[in-house]
Amino acid sequence: MNNEIVLRNDMSFVDLQSIINQAMNLQNEQLRQQVKLLEEKQKTLDAKLDATTDENTALRELELKRHRVEEHRYGFVSLADLGQVYQVSIGSKYMGKLLRLAGIAKAKQSKTEPLRSSTLNNYSKSVMYGDFPTYQWNPEKCIANIDRWLDKIGVIDQFYAIDDEAKLHKYIQELEQKYSE
Q: Does residue 154 have a pLDDT over 90?
Protein backbone atom coordinates (compact mmCIF):
# COMPACT_ATOMS: atom_id res chain seq x y z
CA MET A 1 0.00 0.00 0.00
CA ASN A 2 1.36 3.39 -0.99
CA ASN A 3 1.32 5.67 2.06
CA GLU A 4 2.03 8.79 0.06
CA ILE A 5 -1.04 10.95 -0.57
CA VAL A 6 -1.04 13.79 -3.07
CA LEU A 7 -3.77 16.37 -2.86
CA ARG A 8 -4.66 18.45 -5.89
CA ASN A 9 -7.13 21.30 -6.34
CA ASP A 10 -8.93 19.55 -9.18
CA MET A 11 -9.83 16.46 -7.07
CA SER A 12 -13.50 15.61 -6.76
CA PHE A 13 -15.40 15.17 -3.51
CA VAL A 14 -15.40 11.39 -4.01
CA ASP A 15 -11.62 11.35 -4.54
CA LEU A 16 -11.08 13.40 -1.38
CA GLN A 17 -13.44 11.11 0.56
CA SER A 18 -11.49 8.10 -0.70
CA ILE A 19 -8.25 9.63 0.57
CA ILE A 20 -9.85 10.29 3.96
CA ASN A 21 -11.09 6.68 4.09
CA GLN A 22 -7.60 5.37 3.22
CA ALA A 23 -6.09 7.53 5.97
CA MET A 24 -8.66 6.26 8.48
CA ASN A 25 -8.03 2.65 7.43
CA LEU A 26 -4.29 3.16 7.86
CA GLN A 27 -4.88 4.75 11.24
CA ASN A 28 -7.18 1.86 12.31
CA GLU A 29 -4.59 -0.72 11.22
CA GLN A 30 -1.89 1.02 13.26
CA LEU A 31 -4.21 1.12 16.28
CA ARG A 32 -4.95 -2.63 15.88
CA GLN A 33 -1.22 -3.37 15.81
CA GLN A 34 -0.64 -1.28 18.94
CA VAL A 35 -3.53 -3.01 20.72
CA LYS A 36 -2.12 -6.39 19.69
CA LEU A 37 1.30 -5.43 21.12
CA LEU A 38 -0.34 -4.26 24.33
CA GLU A 39 -2.28 -7.54 24.57
CA GLU A 40 0.96 -9.51 24.18
CA LYS A 41 2.65 -7.39 26.85
CA GLN A 42 -0.36 -7.89 29.12
CA LYS A 43 -0.18 -11.68 28.64
CA THR A 44 3.53 -11.62 29.53
CA LEU A 45 2.83 -9.51 32.62
CA ASP A 46 -0.06 -11.80 33.61
CA ALA A 47 2.21 -14.84 33.30
CA LYS A 48 4.88 -13.14 35.43
CA LEU A 49 2.25 -12.15 37.99
CA ASP A 50 0.92 -15.71 38.13
CA ALA A 51 4.43 -17.08 38.60
CA THR A 52 5.15 -14.52 41.33
CA THR A 53 1.82 -15.24 43.02
CA ASP A 54 2.53 -18.99 42.95
CA GLU A 55 6.00 -18.41 44.37
CA ASN A 56 4.67 -16.11 47.09
CA THR A 57 1.97 -18.62 47.98
CA ALA A 58 4.56 -21.39 48.26
CA LEU A 59 6.79 -19.19 50.43
CA ARG A 60 3.84 -18.20 52.62
CA GLU A 61 2.87 -21.85 53.10
CA LEU A 62 6.44 -22.68 54.01
CA GLU A 63 6.57 -19.86 56.56
CA LEU A 64 3.26 -21.02 58.04
CA LYS A 65 4.75 -24.48 58.46
CA ARG A 66 7.69 -22.93 60.29
CA HIS A 67 5.36 -21.17 62.71
CA ARG A 68 5.50 -22.61 66.19
CA VAL A 69 4.13 -21.96 69.61
CA GLU A 70 6.08 -19.01 70.97
CA GLU A 71 5.46 -19.35 74.70
CA HIS A 72 5.96 -22.34 76.92
CA ARG A 73 4.72 -22.60 80.46
CA TYR A 74 8.01 -23.31 82.16
CA GLY A 75 10.60 -22.48 79.54
CA PHE A 76 11.67 -26.13 79.27
CA VAL A 77 9.60 -28.99 77.86
CA SER A 78 9.82 -32.74 77.53
CA LEU A 79 11.11 -34.33 74.36
CA ALA A 80 7.57 -35.22 73.28
CA ASP A 81 6.35 -31.66 73.90
CA LEU A 82 9.35 -30.31 71.98
CA GLY A 83 8.22 -32.29 68.93
CA GLN A 84 4.71 -30.85 69.26
CA VAL A 85 6.06 -27.32 68.80
CA TYR A 86 6.42 -27.94 65.05
CA GLN A 87 3.53 -27.46 62.62
CA VAL A 88 3.81 -31.15 61.73
CA SER A 89 4.39 -32.87 65.03
CA ILE A 90 7.53 -34.92 65.49
CA GLY A 91 7.53 -37.89 67.83
CA SER A 92 10.01 -37.98 70.70
CA LYS A 93 12.07 -40.73 69.05
CA TYR A 94 12.60 -38.62 65.92
CA MET A 95 12.98 -35.42 67.91
CA GLY A 96 15.85 -37.14 69.72
CA LYS A 97 17.41 -37.99 66.35
CA LEU A 98 17.21 -34.32 65.32
CA LEU A 99 18.81 -33.22 68.59
CA ARG A 100 21.66 -35.69 68.02
CA LEU A 101 22.15 -34.57 64.42
CA ALA A 102 22.19 -30.90 65.45
CA GLY A 103 24.85 -31.63 68.07
CA ILE A 104 22.71 -31.00 71.14
CA ALA A 105 22.33 -34.57 72.39
CA LYS A 106 24.83 -37.39 72.79
CA ALA A 107 25.22 -39.54 69.71
CA LYS A 108 24.53 -43.26 69.54
CA GLN A 109 22.54 -43.69 72.72
CA SER A 110 19.12 -45.24 73.09
CA LYS A 111 17.99 -42.50 75.48
CA THR A 112 18.23 -38.90 74.33
CA GLU A 113 20.69 -37.35 76.75
CA PRO A 114 22.03 -33.82 76.31
CA LEU A 115 25.68 -33.09 75.83
CA ARG A 116 27.31 -31.43 78.82
CA SER A 117 27.75 -28.26 76.73
CA SER A 118 24.01 -28.24 75.96
CA THR A 119 23.21 -28.23 79.66
CA LEU A 120 25.78 -25.53 80.37
CA ASN A 121 24.45 -23.38 77.50
CA ASN A 122 20.87 -23.69 78.72
CA TYR A 123 19.64 -25.90 75.86
CA SER A 124 18.54 -28.51 78.36
CA LYS A 125 18.30 -29.28 82.06
CA SER A 126 18.18 -32.39 84.15
CA VAL A 127 15.21 -33.03 86.42
CA MET A 128 15.10 -35.93 88.86
CA TYR A 129 12.09 -38.17 88.46
CA GLY A 130 12.29 -40.43 91.47
CA ASP A 131 15.76 -41.95 91.37
CA PHE A 132 16.28 -41.33 87.67
CA PRO A 133 17.17 -38.14 85.83
CA THR A 134 14.93 -36.96 83.02
CA TYR A 135 15.76 -34.20 80.62
CA GLN A 136 13.87 -31.15 79.54
CA TRP A 137 14.67 -29.00 76.57
CA ASN A 138 14.58 -25.28 75.83
CA PRO A 139 12.36 -25.12 72.71
CA GLU A 140 13.60 -21.79 71.38
CA LYS A 141 17.27 -22.64 71.63
CA CYS A 142 16.94 -26.24 70.47
CA ILE A 143 14.78 -25.45 67.45
CA ALA A 144 16.98 -22.50 66.48
CA ASN A 145 19.99 -24.82 66.60
CA ILE A 146 18.18 -27.49 64.56
CA ASP A 147 17.18 -24.84 62.01
CA ARG A 148 20.79 -23.66 61.75
CA TRP A 149 21.94 -27.23 61.17
CA LEU A 150 19.23 -27.84 58.54
CA ASP A 151 20.17 -24.58 56.83
CA LYS A 152 23.88 -25.45 56.97
CA ILE A 153 23.31 -28.72 55.10
CA GLY A 154 20.89 -26.97 52.70
CA VAL A 155 17.68 -28.86 53.46
CA ILE A 156 15.71 -26.46 55.65
CA ASP A 157 13.10 -25.69 52.98
CA GLN A 158 12.67 -29.37 52.13
CA PHE A 159 12.29 -30.19 55.83
CA TYR A 160 9.54 -27.63 56.41
CA ALA A 161 7.81 -28.39 53.10
CA ILE A 162 6.88 -31.88 54.35
CA ASP A 163 3.29 -31.80 55.56
CA ASP A 164 2.81 -35.40 56.65
CA GLU A 165 4.11 -36.79 59.94
CA ALA A 166 5.06 -40.20 58.54
CA LYS A 167 6.94 -38.61 55.63
CA LEU A 168 8.71 -36.25 58.02
CA HIS A 169 9.80 -39.16 60.23
CA LYS A 170 11.11 -40.98 57.16
CA TYR A 171 12.99 -37.83 56.09
CA ILE A 172 14.56 -37.49 59.55
CA GLN A 173 15.61 -41.14 59.35
CA GLU A 174 17.23 -40.47 55.95
CA LEU A 175 19.05 -37.46 57.44
CA GLU A 176 20.26 -39.64 60.29
CA GLN A 177 21.60 -42.28 57.90
CA LYS A 178 23.38 -39.65 55.83
CA TYR A 179 24.74 -37.34 58.54
CA SER A 180 25.16 -39.31 61.77
CA GLU A 181 28.73 -39.76 62.85
A: yes
